[in-house]
Amino acid sequence: MTRTITALFDKRPDAEAAEARLKASNVDAGHIRIHDQSSEGYSADKSSTHADVGMWASVQNAFLPDDDRHAYEEGVRRGGFLLTADVGEEHVDQAVKVLEEADTVDIDERSDQWRQSGWNAPGAAAGAGSAAYAYGSEASSADTGLGYADTNATGEQVVPIVEEQLVVGKREVDRGGARVRSYVTETPVHEQIRLRDEKISVQRRAVDRPLTDADDAFRERTIDMTATGEEAVVGKTARVVEEVVVSKTSGERVEQIDDTVRRTDVEIEEDAGRSGGTSIDPANRR
Q1: Which residues pair with 231 in a beta bridge?
Q2: Can you spell out the DSSP letters for 115-161?
Q3: pLDDT-derived band of residue 209, with 50, 70 and 90 as boundaries?
Q4: pTM more than 0.70
């Protein structure tokens, strides 16, 4: 059992690098191809149909829904490069991971942008939730690769029964946030302080009185006097007056996903007027 994985790239070097990474990994991959506007079957003005598969004719084992095909075709039509590869069932997850780690295009997001700009084709890859995706099929030389009826070497008519499965994944989105930035401001401060200053005054004054013993006359002496004063001394102290705490909390919520999936059913009518020819196993009727 094999699956075909697909991934879209904006640039050929990115697609070639993804191809090289796929080949270098331990993935059992074959039929690796890069499709662009030069590929056989490419059409610039119409989408593929069941009758005209276009460039998908070379994709041997893919069962792609119409919406997915049209989205990838539009990507190539807008200058992109589509990589496809057949991968063994047991290597699908690893192969998808290898391609998603390359510079692949998110086909959901890109197709939404196209629709907003006027593209009115069916929505691409609904529910895939992945840049690279795997489509299941059973490898056979008779497979057309797109889920259409084909006739193998024994003459049997093969009608593939295709069933979609809803794949719901998760991805992180930006819900907004907060930025706290600290910076320093300066505020002028005015204070008053009373300071004391001393001054020395030397005066001569006229005196006319009799000499007394207390005058201790005719003795040499020296008088020293020092004036003092006060000056302002400025210092600063810092104190923590407030804290800003930045944190986040997380919670979980349950979101209900409602969508539809498609399935190919067949209706069998027997023609009782014929004998011989095709036999129908009643156990296989649907």
Answers
A1: none
A2: HHTT--SPPSSTTT-SSEEEEEE---TT--SSS--EE-TT--EE---
A3: confident
A4: no
